[in-house]
Amino acid sequence: MRDLAKEKAVDEKAIKISGLTKAFGAHTAVDHIDLEVGRGELFGLVGPDGAGKTTVMRLLTAIMTPDSGEAWIAGESVLDRPERIKERIGYMSQQFGLYEDLTVMENIRFYADLYGVAHRERPARVDRLLAFSNLGPFRDRLAGNLSGGMKQKLGLTCALIHTPEILFLDEPTGGVDPVSRRDLWRILYDLLREGVTIFVSTAYLDEAERCTRIGLIHRGGLLVTGEPRKVRHMLPFPMIEVLSPYSRRARDAAAAVEGVRGVVVYGDRLHLSLEKGVIADEVLAALASRGITVTGQRTILPSLEDVFIALVTGSEAGMTAGQER
Amino acid sequence: MGLLRIKAMAQKEWIQIRRDRLSLAMAFLLPVMLLLIYAYAITFDVNEILMVVYDQDKGSMSRELSAEFTRSDYFTLVASLDSYEQIDRYLDSDRARVALVIPVDFSKRIRTAKPTSAEVIVDGSNSNTATIALQYIAAIGEQFNRRQGLSPASPTIEVKNRVWYNPELKSRNFVIPGLIALIMSVIASVLTSLTVAREWDRGTMEQLISTPVKPVELVIGKLIPYFLIGFADTVLCVLISTFLLKVPLRGSVGLLFAVSAIFLVGGLSFGLLLSTVTKNQVLASQLGMLTSFLPSFLFSGFIFNISNMPVPLQAFTYTVSARYFVSVLKGIFLKGIGMRFMALEVALLSLYGAVVFLLACRKLRKRID
Amino acid sequence: MTDGAETAVEVRGLSRTFGTFVAVDAIDLRIRKGEIFGFLGPNGAGKSTTIRMLCGLLMPTAGSGTVGGCDILTQSESIKKRIGYMSQKFSLYDDLTVEENIAFFGGVYQVAKAKKGTRKAWVLEMAGLAEERAALTRTLAKGFKQRLALGCAILHEPPLLFLDEPTSGVDPLSRRKFWSLIRELADGGTTIFVTTHYMEEADYCDRLALIYRGRIIAEGTPTELRQRHMKREILEIETDSTIGALEVLLASGIDCAVFGSTLHCTVEDAAASDRTIRRLLDTSAITVDRMERVMPSLEDVFVTLIEVS
After folding, report:
1. DSSP per-residue string spanning C14-27
2. Are A63 and B208 an interchain contact pair (Cβ–Cβ within 8 Å)?
3. CATH number at residue B59
4. Which of A8, B323, C187, C237 could form a disulfide with B300 if both were Cys (CB 3.0 to 4.6 A apart)?
C-alpha cells in the first residue's frame, strides 16, 4: 500500500511541466507548455490529431528528450532521472504496444517480469486486474485476436501490473466500441478512487467533460486549462437549447435570425449561440413568428467543442452563421 | 487505354523519384561501386606464392634450382629450413604455401647424369591456388632442365609433387569450410537484423522503452534464442559437411564449435546493431544482406585470394570477421591444426564480438528521437 | 418503397470473409439518390470492408446488388467511373504538392481538358488552399488534407461519393466545415455514403445504419433510431459531483453512465425513477441541478443494442 499522505507531503504535484518544447525539423510539435497536475487528479489533454498530444506524452514518460524546458514526474526530473520515473509510472501508447503473437497471460507475465513484480504478489494482482477488465475468460487467447476494446483493456492491465502512482494513457478510447469505452472509463474512475493520478489524452471533446481538469491543446500550445465546467463558462456568448420537432426547418430559420451566431443540431434539440447581450426571449419570439414550433427551451453552457472552436478561431470571429449544420 | 492516365501516372512517379534523393543516389552509385569492387577483388591470378626451401644438398645445383624458383615472379622465398618439422610449422601457420625439398645428393647425381628429382610440397587447402602452383612448378622444372642443358625430354629432373592437406585437390574440400563461414555470417545477421526493427514497426518498442528495462538486458535477452538457433545451424552444417559431403575433419571438434560460438556472438550482435540503427524492417534486412553477404563472399578469402587483391582492399579485409573464421575453419577441417596456430585469429574474433556487442548496447537507446 | 431510378445503391446479403473471420455478415442496404447515408460503428465493425465492396475494390464472398446502376459482382470497373472515393488514410501523396496531387487525380479521373482549370480552382477554394497550392502535402494540417482529399475525390463530379472515416482525428472546426460541404454536395444531388465512429455525427446524416461485428443492428433516420430502439427511458442528471453521483447510483443497482458532464441513467419508468434517484442523491448530500427525461443519444441506443445481442 502506498502512503498517500507521505507522498503528498514530499512531492506536492504529481506532474509539473515548465516551458516544455520539442520540434521536429521546422515543425514545432510542443511549444513551451507549462502545466501542473495534482495527485489523484484525472487530467485530460484534449485536442485533435497533430496538436501535439502524443509528443507531450512521450516527453513526460521520458521516452523522448525535450529540446528545452523541463518536467518533473512524481518529483523526479525527466532530464536527470528518466529510468527512475519509468519504475513509478504506467504508460499505454496510442498504437497497440503489446505482442499480438503472445497470449493475454504471456503478455501480462512479460510485463510483470520487466517491472520486477514479486512472484508472490502476482496471483492476487493478476486475478484482480483481469476481473476489473473482464479479460478473465480470454487468458489464453492471442492478443492479436482480441477486439479493439479488449486490446485496450489488456494494455491497461499491463500498464497497471506494478501498481504505478501515475498512469499515462495516450488516446485509450480511440475508435473503440461504446460499451468498451464505458468499461474503460469505469476502470479509470475505480483507479482514481484508489489514489492513482491519471493523465489521459483524447481527441473526443465529450470525454474531456469526464476529467477532473482539462487542458485544450492546439498546434503544440495550451489554449486553456481548468475544470471542464469553468472552461465552459469562459465564452461570453449566451447559449440556449431549443426543442423542436422539425429540427431542420428550425435550424434554417434560427440561423437567419439576427443575433444568432450559430446553430448546432442534436437530434430534436438545437443549440443556439447568441451574440453578447442578445436576449433569449427575443430570439424565441423571432422563431415563433417564422412558424417554428418550440416545445421547450432552457439556457445552457456552451459545450467544450464550442469553446475550443471559439478559442482557435479567435473569440471575436468565432462561429458564424455560415458554419452551421 | 487512357493516355491521359498513363501520362498522369508517369508524371507523378517522376516527381516522387526526383524528390527521393537517397534512392536516386543509390540508383547511380551502387552499380559503379559494385563494378569497381568486383573488378578489383575478383582475380584468379596467382603470384607471389610464399615458399620455403629445405636444401639437404647445399650444392651449386641445388642453389641453382632454388634460384630458378625465386627468380620467377610467381614464388617468393620466405625462409631456408632444415627439417620437415619446420616445413610443417610453416605450412600449418600459413606462412608458406609451397615447400621445395632438395635431396642430399642432388648436385652430384646431376653431374653424373643420373636421374634425380626434387620434391615440392604444396598446401592443397586452397585447391585453386594449388592447381595453379603445380602448373608453375612444372614449367619452372622444365626451365631448369633447359638452362642446365639437360635434355627436356629426359626425366633427369622430376619435381615430385606432394600435395598435403587436400591430396585429391577436391575443390569441395576447400570450398565447404569457407562456405560454412559465409552461411553462418549471413544467417547470424539476418536472424537478428529484423528483431529490433520489427518491434519499432509494430509499435511494441515504444511500450517496451517506457519500462525500466536496460538496453544491455534487452540485447542479451534477444541474443540468447538466436544464438541457440545459430549454434544448432552450425552443428547441422558441420554434420552435413562431414557425413554427407565427406569433407575431412582433421582437427578438434570442440575447438571448432568453440570458435563458432565466438563468431556467432559477433555476427548476431552485428545484426542487432543494424536493427537498432535502421528502425525499419525492410531497410534492416536489406542492409543485413548487403553488409554480411558481400564482404563475406568477396573479402574473407573464401574463394578469392586476399593476397592477390590490391593492398587497400587487403587492409579492408582485416575488418571482415568472416576472414578469420574462414582461416580457422580451413585450418581445423583440412590441416587439423590446434589453438597454437590460430590464437591470433581467435583473439581478433573475440575482440570483434565484444566491440560489436557493446556498440549494439550503446546504440539501443531508450528514446524515440 | 422507392423505384429504381431513385435508388443509388442497393445491395442484399452482402458478405465478406477473410479465412475464417467474417468481416461483413449478410448486410442489406438501400440508399436513395441525393441522400447522406451514415454507417456508424466502432473500429473493426466492418465499415471499411463494406465501403470497399461497394466501390468495387473488394469482391464480396456472398450477396449481390448494384451501385450507381452497375452490378457490384460483374461491373466493378464501371462503378469506379461513377464514384468518388476517399479512403481512411486520405490517399494523398505526401511527397507531392497540393497542385501536383490535384493534377494527378485529374489525370487519373480523366477530367476533360476544358474543365480542368475550373475544377482545380474550385477545389483550391473549397479547401482553403488557394495560397498554399505549392506546399508539400506532407506539411498540411489534417483539416486541410481532409478537404483536399475530398476535392481530389470529386474532381470529376461523380454522382456518388464514398467517404471512409473522413473526420477521424480532425479538429472540431474543420469537422463542422467538412459537414457543411457534404450538405452542400448532397443538396446538389450527390449521393453520399459516409462511415464514422463518432456517434454524434449521426445527426448530420439523413439516414443511418449502425454496424457492429459485421452486422447491421439498426437502421433508420436518427430520430427513428432514437425512438424505435429504446424500450427504456433515459434520465439526464446534472449534479455538482458527477463521479460521486455515479458511485451512489451504481451501488443502488441503477444503470448509469457518464455522458459528457452529466449522467445518463437507463430506467424503466422515468417518473418513478426520478423520485428514487433524488432521494438517493439527497441522502448522499449531492445536489441535483437538473434531472429530466431526454431522448436517448445514439451512444445510448448503440449500447442498448449491443448489450441485447
Report:
1. EEEEETTEEEEEEE
2. no
3. 3.40.1710.10
4. B323
> Which residue of B1, B3, B4, B16 is the best one to mutate when testing the C interface, meaning the one whose CB has the most C CBs within 10 A?
B4
Q: Which chains touch C (3 or more CB pairs under 8 A)?
A: A, B
Are residues B206 and A116, on separate chains, in Cβ contact within 8 Å?
no
Residue B208 near chain A (CB below 8 Å): yes
Same domain, B63 and B105: yes
CB pair distance less than 8 Å for A175 and C179: no
Nearest to A58 by CA among B203, B362, B206: B206
Range of the domain at B137: 49-147
From B95, B113, B147, the end of a domain falls on B147
Domain boundary among B90, B113, B147: B147
Position A221, amino acid: G
Q: Tell me: do B301 and B176 sit in the same domain.
A: yes
Identify whether residues B197 and B305 lie together within a single domain.
yes
Interface predicted TM-score of the whole assembly (ipTM), two decimals: 0.79
Nearest to B226 by CA among B268, B263, B270: B268
Indicate whether B153 belongs to any domain. Answer: no
Residues B74 and B27 both lie in one domain: no
Residues of C in contact with B5 (CB under 8 A): 107-108, 110
Q: Does A325 touch chain C (CB under 8 A)?
A: yes
Q: Report the candidate in A278, A270, A279, A266 with the shortest Cα–Cα distance to residue A250.
A: A270
Query: pLDDT digit of tens for each residue in chain B (369 aa)?
Result: 778 888 888 888 888 888 888 888 888 888 888 788 777 777 677 778 899 999 998 888 889 888 988 888 889 999 999 998 898 888 888 888 899 999 898 888 888 877 788 888 888 877 778 888 888 888 888 888 888 877 665 545 566 677 777 777 777 788 888 889 988 988 888 888 888 888 888 889 988 898 889 999 999 999 999 999 999 999 999 999 999 888 888 889 999 999 999 999 999 999 999 888 887 888 888 888 888 888 888 888 888 878 778 888 888 888 888 999 998 998 898 888 888 888 999 999 999 999 999 999 999 888 887
Residue A208: strand, helix, or coil = helix
pTM of the complete model: 0.82
Number of domains forming the structure of chain B: 2
Query: CA nearest C257 in A: which residue?
Result: A182
Same domain, B65 and B12: no
- Residue B247 and residue B266 share a domain: yes
Give strand pairing partners of A273: A239, A262
Instruction: Select from A183, A268, A301 the residue whose CB has the most chain C CBs within 10 Å, as the one to mutate to test that interface.
Output: A268
Does C110 contact B at CB distance below 8 Å? Answer: yes
Residue B211's nearest CA partner among A160, A319, C259 is A160
Which chains form contacts with chain B, at 3 or more CB pairs under 8 Å? A, C
Which SS3 state, helix, strand or coil, does residue B103 take? coil
Question: Which residue out of A179, A204, A313 would a mutagenesis test of the C interface target, given it has the greatest number of C Cβ atoms within 10 Å?
Answer: A179
DSSP string, C42-64: -TTSSHHHHHHHHTTSS--SEEE
